[in-house]
Amino acid sequence: MKGPVKTILVVDDEPDAIELVEFNLRAAGYGVIAAEDGEEAIRKAREGLPDLIVLDVMLPEVDGMAACRTLKNDPITSDIPVIMLTAKAAEIDRVLGLELGADDYVTKPFSPRELVLRIKNLLSRQDTKAVPLPAKIVAGKLTIDSDRHLVLVSGEPVELTATEFKLLSILASRRGRVQNREQLLRDVWEYDNYIDTRTVDTHMRRLRSKLGAAADYLGTVRGVGYRFAESSN
What we know:
By secondary structure, the chain is α/β, with parallel strands linked by helices. It has 2 domains: 7-127, Rossmann fold (3-Layer(aba) Sandwich); 136-228, Arc Repressor Mutant, subunit A. 40% of the residues lie in helices and 21% in strands. The chain is built from 8 helices and 12 strands. Strands 2-1-3-4-5 form a 5-stranded parallel β-sheet, sandwiched between helices. A 4-stranded antiparallel β-sheet has the order 6-7-8-9, with helices on one face. The chain has a 3-stranded antiparallel β-sheet with strand order 10-12-11. Strand 3 (52-56), helix 3 (64-73) and strand 4 form a beta-alpha-beta unit. The protein starts with 6 loop residues before the first strand and ends in a 5-residue tail after the last strand.
């Protein structure tokens, strides 16, 4: 028996873009709500509580960044996954979106098939059990407490998004073992198909900047992926 239809809120100020995304989402079996600006997106998210939001960065009035911040700071909508749509060259938009709590991003122009695949996998993450992780990991000045969803560096708390926390926890639980980008896409984002490994790299850069003095634990293995070091430099 099929479960209830998942509803996606699509936010873009270009009607043609909404029409394209809506066509592909409905063909994939999803319900769709549309909004053309950030203010309308916030209102419809609160009223309709969609299962996921596709949010364009460039919007009139309230832009996508401001809308994402509002949605993630509101207890009613904070748990709704958000995929940001960003300009291809605007890495700053991707980093800011992830910092504000967005779960993923897709660069324009994008493949509708890729967007549908990312939506499918993000929703699967919501419905399935998380990768089992140790209750607490301590590595020198770094402490990761999964039960309290807390990260400390030299005793000071570090604010991480849910995705950043999961990425750090998985790397730390596999200390010393190299994790390639495709493997991290599967285990953190639960993407079972190759998509864009830059998603991993963008999150890693942001995670390192937040960890500060403990950033050295996150080592890059050139041409392969990442590894949580046995000790910090």
